[in-house]
């Protein structure tokens, strides 16, 4: 058994009799390298900083980390504008530091996943510099250049989701180039086979360096209608005050799936996992990203999960739909583009308990969870106080309706000391006062902290086969306040009971249909909850209480 496990680190071998692969058992942790740990005290986190925190991540119960882009970049979009895919930005370290990180992580049983910005490069990438230099340059057709409709008129009505038109006029060659994000992020022309090959080579480069997978950025915007048909107008206005457009002709084109299949073929040669930034309106749309023959993304993120309101019926319905969709679910509750989950769900009265109930929920579902750094200590959004403090360009353009994403990207809070122990320099984003309470050092010493709760749930996931392998069986489906389910694998059953309301609740379970005529429960984890009667399986829960128990005959 041990041997199987060890060899599975390098190879795409099942880690259990179910045929599950390593990424189905792993807990992933997204970290923003600028903000995780600063080893040289220049105020910006770096790779050696990450390496220095591997013990912490191991103890927490993490199996893989996804590092948001750490490649050379002018940092207009803080790394999502890559100017060289095959190197490390000096502010983060060197390729050698990266190799050290991979090796040290491996010793900790932690895999490294990188962020692959597939849709666009930086306008400072050598491909784009050549592309813009003349209409006949070797890389001209690597990007999307078109004539305007007339003087001062872009080729069509497409808009960048970052608040500007999607076309930028370049006087050097008197044409416009297309950018779905910032103007400094020109879209690659994925219809050009040379672009595809170059990008495929990038993935090979990193796989060969020991990377266990890639998180694919902005996959749905890879292709555009070649006829540049205008998008239809939608209702209302967006957060930049522009009339809404329905992105019919520049998003989610069917060709996206061909590209994903090609990327997957290469990933499979290196036993790598592909995680997708898959924003979808519904589960049906998300399902497509697995591929008709499970030949696209192994882990398309369920980002709809981040938009749900804290309500038992809402979660119950969504989880059931995703669980039945046929793929392996990938749950996230927040990331570097979304207001932190703590701030989104806090009610001012039960904030910490709400943070715990969310962990109790998504870390016990069937599927792979991807955590976001700091979530485990209850980090809160620290939004800029005024427009002059904003670093993220969309916040500058959209202030005050759109504050940008700085608030969810602040330095990791390691201690109650200066700058939360992140740096002795000046941190690139300010640390909030709440860091005095919510930090790793303080919470490690407190058995009731959010951090301790996360560690317990993550430990349970490792210890209880039902939590990793088990089917998801919804219980008490008409309960408006308490979300309950059984995870069942062979003889092993774990009951999860989550009070998603601000009131005290008492619930009882009849588990006859699940094979338990006279069940016995053994509590695995209680937080603001307690078993009243183990035989009748009755539980009382304080607001947002969590109760997890093993059920036996
Ligand atoms: C999605 C990333 O998560 C976001 O941070 C970035 O700004 C855009 N893609 C553009 O790369
Ligand atoms: Ca640094």
Primary descriptors:
553 residues; alpha/beta; 8-stranded parallel beta sheet; 6-stranded antiparallel beta sheet; 19 strands; 26% helix; globular; disordered N terminus; binds 1-deoxynojirimycin; binds calcium ion
Secondary-structure-based class equals alpha/beta
**Which ligands, by name, code or SMILES, are bound?**
1-deoxynojirimycin, calcium ion
User: Which sheet architecture does the biggest sheet show?
Assistant: 8 strands, parallel
Global outline: globular
Question: How many extended strands?
Answer: 19
> Approximately how much helix is present in the residues?
25-40%
Mean pLDDT: 96
Assembly context of the chains: single chain
Task: Outline the structure in words.
This protein has helices at residues 2-8, 22-25, 33-36, 47-52, 54-60, 95-107, 126-133, 193-208, 255-269, 283-287, 312-323, 341-345, 351-362, 393-398, 440-444, 450-463, 465-469, and strands at 28-31, 64-67, 111-117, 145-146, 167-170, 175-178, 213-217, 233-237, 243-245, 273-276, 299-300, 330-332, 368-372, 471-475, 482-489, 492-499, 505-508, 520-533, 538-552. The protein has 553 residues and is α/β, with parallel strands linked by helices. The strands form four sheets. An eight-stranded parallel β-sheet has the order 11-10-7-3-2-1-13-12. Strands 14, 15, 16, 17, 18 and 19 form a six-stranded antiparallel β-sheet that branches. Strand 10 (273-276), helix 10 (283-287) and strand 11 form a beta-alpha-beta unit. Helix 8 runs parallel beside helix 9 (255-269). Bound molecules: 1-deoxynojirimycin and calcium ion (CA). Calcium ion binds next to loops.
